[in-house]
Amino acid sequence: MFGQKSTMVDRAQALPGRDAPTPALPPHEVLGTPLTPPYPEGSAIADFGMGCFWGAERRFWQLGAENGIITTAVGYAGGYTRNPTYDEVCTGRTGHTEAVRVVFDPEKISYTDLLRVFWENHDPTQGMRQGNDVGTQYRSAILYHDDTQKAAAESTRDAFQPILTQGGYGAITTEILPAGEFYFAEVYHQQYLSDTKNPHGYCGVGGTGESCPVGVARTGE
Question: I need a labelling partner for 85 at 20 to 30 A (CA). Which of 19, 98, 119, 185 fits?
C-alpha cells in the first residue's frame, strides 16, 4: 500500500475529478479575511507543500497580520485531478500534494522571509513523505508564481543544503515547479488547528521547530 502511495501517479492514470469546485468557504477562522480571490490590490501569493497542511498553515497564520499575512488557506496542488476531494488525494491517485496558500503584503514581509519559514519548519529531504505521514501528498514542494519566486526558491534551497548536510541530512528533495491550479480543501480542513476548531489538535509540521528534526537549523546562523 505504501509503495503505491509513494510513487507519483501518471497523468493518464490519475483520477478525473469533477468540474464543480469546493463549495464557498467562510472567512479565515483566525484572521477574519477571505480565503479565496479576489485578494487585496498589491498582495502576492505563495504556495508551499510541507507535509501535513494543518500545521503548515498554522505556522504561517501565526506570523500575523501585523507582519503582512493577509490570509492563509489549505488545498491541493501540483497534481492532475480536477477539484479533488481529500479522500481522493489520500489514495495517491491525484498527483497532488497537500499545500498551504499564503497571501501576503510584500511591503511588510518578503517572499524570501516566507521561504525561510518554509525551509525551517519541515524536513525537505524525505521524498514522498514527511515523518510518519507517507505518500505523494506529503512531499515537499514550492509552487512559484513568477520567475522572481522561482529564483528565490532555488537560491534559498542552495543556501540551506549545506546546513542540512552539516547536520547529517541528505539531499533536498523539494520540488520547485510552476504554480498550476490551487484547489481549496474542504472547509473542515481550513484553519484546522485554530483555537476554535481543534485547540488540542496535533500536527508534526509547522510547530515551534521542536517537532521537526531540521526545525532547529536556522538559515541565518
Answer: 119
Provide CB contacts within 8 A for 170, sequence distance 6+.
125, 164
Domain 39-221 in CATH 3.30.1060.10? The answer is yes
Q: Quote the DSSP letter at residue 167.
A: T
Sort strands 140-144 and 175-178 into parallel, antiparallel or unpaired.
Answer: parallel
52 is catalytic: yes
Domain coordinates in residue numbering, the chain: 39-221
The H or E element containing residue 164 is helix 147-166
Q: What confidence tens digit (pLDDT) does each residue in 25-80 have?
A: 999 999 999 999 999 999 999 999 999 999 999 999 999 999 999 999 999 999 99
Quote the pTM value.
0.92
Q: Which of 52, 90, 203, 212 is catalytic?
A: 52
